[in-house]
Amino acid sequence: MPMIDQNGKNKEHSLAKSSYIVGGMTFISRISGFIRDILFANIFGASANTDAFFVAFKIPNFFRRLFAEGAFIQSFIPVLNDYKTNNPIELKKFISYVQGNLALILFIITFFGIIFSESIINLFAPGFVMGSEQYILASDMLKVTFPYLFFIALTAMAAGIFNTFDKFLLPAITPVLLNVSLIFSALYLTNMFSTPIMALAYGVLIAGLLQYIIQIPFLYKLDLLVAPKISFRFSGVNKVIKLMLPAILGTAIVQINLIIDSVVASLLASGSISWLYYSDRLVELPLGVFGIAIATVILPSLSAKYSKKDMAAYKSTLGNALNIAVVFSLPAMFGLVILSNHIIISLFQYGSFTINDTLMSSMSLVAYSIGLPAFILMKVLLTGFFSRQDTKTPVRYGIIAVAFNVAMNLSVLAYYLHNPFNGAHAFLALATSLSAWLQVFLLYKNLRQNDYISKSIFKTKPSYQSLLSCIIMTIILSYTLLDVLEWSQNAYYVRGALLLIYIIMGAIIYTSTMYILGYKIKKNYI
C-alpha cells in the first residue's frame, strides 16, 4: 500500500491549474444539473408538488452546505493540514476520530430529522397548510431525503482529505452522481409511485449513498481509509469542534438567507419556491465554477502558508484570488441579467412550465444575479479567516447579514399580505443579494484593516478593465439580442443553439476587450 509523502517531495501544484480542474469539473456537474432541472420543469412544472419537493430537498441540502462547503470543511482542513505537516504520526488517528464522531452526530441529526419531519416542514414552510396534500407530501419526502445528509457529509470529509493532498479531481466531479441519479429517477422511477414526484426523493437518497461509496477505493489508494472511532477527548477533534461551532453561521449566511427566502416564499403565491429554485440554480453555475473552485483550492494553500508564517505569500495568494474572482464574476453577472428571459425560455419553458413561470423566474434571476459577485467574493474572503483558524469574526458579520435579510423579507411579506402583487418573490432574492454585499463589505474591511489584504478589491486595474469590458459586452449584446416572443416561438434545439451563440459571443467580446485593455492571467496567478 502506498505511503503518504510526509516530506513534501510531491511536485508542487499550480494553484491556477488546480482551480481550472475544480472549475472544469464543477462546470460539468452544473451542466448535468441544468439537464436535471430542465427535466424537472418539463415533467413537473412549477406547482404545489414541486414546491413540496424543493423544500424536502432544500432542508438536508442546507445542512449539506454547512458540512460540504461550510463550517466542517473550513474547520477540518486547517487542522488536518497541521497534522499532515507537524504531526504525521497522529494523522490517521485524527482522521479516524473525526470520522467516527462526525458519523455519530450525523446519525443523531438524521434520526430526529426523520422522526420530526412534520415539525421541520412547519418550520421551513409555514405556508404549507397543515394536513393538506402538499404538507403531507413534503413531510413524506423529507423522511426519504434526510438520510442524504449522513452520506454526503461523510463524502465531504473525504473531499477535504483529497483536497489537502492536492487531489482535486474526484471531489469536484462527484456531485455529477446526484444529477445522474435524479435524472434517472425522473425518467424511469416516476411510474412506480402514485405521486410521481416522490421518485425524486428516492433519487436524492440513492445519490448520497453512491457519492460516498465511490470515495472508499480512493481513500484506500491514498492509505487513509481508516476505521471510524468515537471519542471527543482527542485534541484534534476538540480543535475542529471549537473552530466549527462559531463557523456554522459564518459560512452559511447565503444558505441561511436562501432558506429564509424559501420560508417566506411559502407564504406567497403558489410556485414562488419553485421560481426561486430555478433562478438560484442558474446563479449556482458561475458560483460553483469560480467562487467555490477558487476557495476550495486556496484554503489548503493559505493554511499551509500561514502555518509557515510566510505572510508575503499569504497576502499575495489571497489578493490575487480576489482579483480573479472579480474578473470572472462581473461578466457572469452582466450576462445573466441581459439574457435572463432568454435563458429561462431556452432551458425550462417546455411542457408544464408556462410563460408566467418564465417571467417570474427571470425576475428572481435578475435579483440573484445582482449578488453574484458578492456570493463569489464571500467564498474567497472567508478563506482569509478560516485559513488562520479564525471562525468567530465571520459570525458577527453573519448575524448582521442575516438580520438585514430577515428584516427585508418580513417587510416584503407584510406589504404583500395587505397588497398582493406579482413578483413578490423577486424582492426576497434581492434582499439575499444585498445581504451578501453587506457581509462582503464587513469581511473585506476587517481583512484590510488587519493587513491581510494589501490592495482594494475593486479599485484595481483588473477591476476597471473588467467593468469596462462588461459595459461594452452589454451594449453589443443588447443591440443584437432577438425579441423574447420571437425567441420563444423556436424549437427547443434552436433556442439552445441561439443561447449558446449569444453566450459565446459575450465571452468573446469580454475576453477580447480585456486583452485589448492589457489584462493577462499569469501562469500561477493565484
Question: Can you give keywords for this protein?
Answer:
mainly alpha; 23 helices
Quick gist of this model?
The chain has 526 residues and is mainly alpha-helical. The chain has 23 helices and no strands. The longest helix has 36 residues, at 272-307.
**Alpha-carbon Rg, integer:** 23 Å
Query: What share of residues is helical?
Result: over 70%
Strand residue percentage:
under 5%
Figure out the total of helices.
23
Gap between N and C termini, in Å?
34 Å
Label the structural class. mainly alpha
Q: What would the principal axes of the Cα set say about the shape?
A: globular
Q: Low-confidence runs (pLDDT<50, min 5 residues)?
A: 1-13
Q: How many runs of DSSP E, i.e. beta strands? A: 0
Order of helices and strands: HHHHHHHHHHHHHHHHHHHHHHH
- Taken together, the total number of domains comes to 1
SSE layout and pairing:
Elements: H1 15-44, H2 48-68, H3 71-86, H4 91-115, H5 117-124, H6 133-145, H7 148-164, H8 169-173, H9 176-188, H10 198-213, H11 216-221, H12 235-251, H13 253-265, H14 272-307, H15 311-338, H16 340-347, H17 355-370, H18 372-386, H19 393-418, H20 424-449, H21 461-480, H22 484-488, H23 492-516
